[in-house]
Amino acid sequence: MLPTNNNLKILSAYNPYLCDCSFIVFEACINRLEKQNRSSVKHVFHDLNQMKCYFPPTNKGIAIRDLNFHRYCVILEDCPPSCICYLQERNTLRVNCSSRRLLEMPVIIPKLTNVYTILYLDHNPLGYLGYHSYLSRLSEIYLDHCLLTTVTLSALAALKNIRVMTLHDNLLQKLPTSTSNITLEKATNITLHNNRWACSCESLWLPRWISKHSAIIWKPENISCDYLQIAMRDVSKSNCDEKRHLNHDYLAVFLVACAFLAMTHVYFLYRQDVPILMESKT
User: Fold this and answer.
1) Can you give the pTM of this predicted structure?
2) What residues form the membrane-spanning segments (predicted)?
């Protein structure tokens, strides 16, 4: 959308801009303003020449207006509703569905071969991550802040080519037990923190799995049990053994207390009958 307020002035320099194909919309806005009136661009965007890229490293320090996004970015039409799909430099497919208020995952995404595919689904109230055939083509998937409570085993198994996966800041309490058999050979960065992990002695495989993949999991020490308020990686078999022994001690004390209370109850219930019984025997 082009600015229509003649008094509008925008100062946007000195931000860590990620100069990817999403800037093609901004570029179109600038080009249209220049066609209308070249001076109107400087009137609205006062520091346009100082707006420079920070990411990716290949574009760091380059002025945004010097990059011709339309030359190496191709907008794809076969894109999920509400999403934006573009092919960048002919080798990276970006499917941007971030913050679109989606209630479920896209049914399909553009199918391209021999490209690095990134799917942005963060900040959508999805709640559920299920299997889709395109998951096997993904190199990166962003699922943080999605109110996820369930991640299916079939979905995890399909992510065989995944390198980056963000699952932090969700409502996850557990992962399928068979996740321990899945090997994420290509993964370099996985996030799991800020969830509601329900640590128990029945799910000891998860702390072990996290320890095994600590090289690719972002700050594993920040993954904590929701109720115990301890780091998940600190939950071990010894903790469970101590807990079992402690539970056995509590059980023994409880049984003794119950027996004592029962005997006391019987005594007070029949205390008036005891002298009569004693006299009858004599």
Assistant:
1) 0.70
2) 250-270
